[in-house]
Amino acid sequence: MVEKKVPHTASASEGNVHLHNHFGHLAFHDPLTGLPNRDLFVERMNRELARVRRYESGFALIMLDLDEFEAVNDANGHDAGDLVLCDVANHLASAVRDVDTVARTGGDEFAILLDGVTSKKEAEIVALKIIKSMSAPIRLGNGTQIKIGASAGIVLSPQDGYLAEQLMQCANQAMNVAKNNGKGLIGFSRNLQTAPKASQPSPPPPGSMILGISILDEQHKAMSNFIQGIIESLKNGDHSTKLLKRVELLVELCRIHFKTEEDMMQLYDIEGLDEHRTEHQVKLKNLRSIFGNLNFNEKELAKLTHDANEWLCEHIREQDTELVAQLKKKGVF
User: Fold this and answer.
1) Residue 139: which of 83, 64, 67, 180 has the closest Cα?
2) Which of 109, 117, 164, 260 could form a disulfide with 45 if both were Cys (CB 3.0 to 4.6 A apart)?
């Protein structure tokens, strides 16, 4: 059956509906750029967060702030500033998918919700694309060219939380860090800055500390256990004076180990004793430097873990292995 077309006649009730829809749109959209405003963006974030909880999905949030936007207003007037904001809105809308949401959340601040994006790398690619696209000059009606940039902060849900305002605040903090470090940069939440556990340096494997001389092997094991104990305490937030004493005990334990080596070299007439003594002093100084400041953020703690474990591995690899080889060559063990 073919549907007949009925001529449309406007009525007062239809007019009221259109008026209601118009004001409803204005309530949730930015009047300048036409983008969703903060209220609508938070509503869509809450909808996504409900999906995250229910279906174990995820999304990325990018907060974007224009660099030197106030200077544009001061030098060219607010009409020029409005033109820049509209141009930025167009760049953002064209840089993401239809399923994503771009909003203007403040004067020169924008937010992007990347639906289903669960990796730091994927979100970073989008942010880099956006920042690069905004590097092109914007031409005003009078022919003046304006060049601006942007700084971005990235968080992921569920990794960084399940609350919209919390995620936006976290992304803003990451963005401010990027802005303070220089223009046109990307910042990440502390959770995303932390190196993945799989790539974090691990303690020396037991086999690497076994050289066949029991007293050295036991000392290696004790040194490694001491280092891991201090690192675990730092991970748990312990910055007490007791921890400083444990660091001093670690240094003393390493000094005893070095003295054991030096005594063996002297007893069995192994060459290079003076060089070893000098190297041991340098190693102790380096160890103190590694643990010199116990107020770490997560990224710095990952570096400390690497440096401390590498400190021990390097010593065993470059000094003790050679010493044991010389002792065995002399038939001592």
Assistant:
1) 83
2) 164
Say which CATH superfamily domain 197-329 falls into: Hemerythrin-like (1.20.120.50)
Across the chain, the runs of DSSP E, i.e. the strands, are: 59-67, 101-104, 109-115, 138-139, 145-146, 149-157, 186-188
Confidence of residue 197 (pLDDT cuts 50, 70, 90): very low
pLDDT of 2 higher than 50 = no
Encode burial over 1-11: b for 16+ CB neighbours within 10 A, e otherwise: eeeeeeeeeee
What would the mean pLDDT of 81-87 be, rounded to a whole number? 92
Distances (CA, A) of 129 to 17, 94, 99, 147, 148: 40, 11, 17, 17, 15
Those residues whose C-beta lies under 8 Å from the C-beta of residue 40, and which sit 6 or more positions away, are 28, 29, 103
SS3 content of the chain, % helix, strand, coil (to 5): 60, 10, 30
| Three-class SS state of 60 | strand
Torsions phi, psi for 303 (to 5 deg): -65, -40
Is the bond preceding 158 in cis, omega lying within 30 degrees of 0?
Answer: yes
Q: In this structure, which topology does domain 24-193 adopt according to CATH?
A: Alpha-Beta Plaits (3.30.70)
pTM greater than the 0.70 cutoff: no
**Total number of residues shown for the chain:** 333
**CA dihedral for 61, 175, 234, 225, sign (positive or negative):** positive
The answer to whether the beta carbons of residues 103 and 122 sit under 8 Å apart is no
**What does each C-alpha distance from 65 to 59, 75, 91 come to in angstroms?**
20, 19, 14
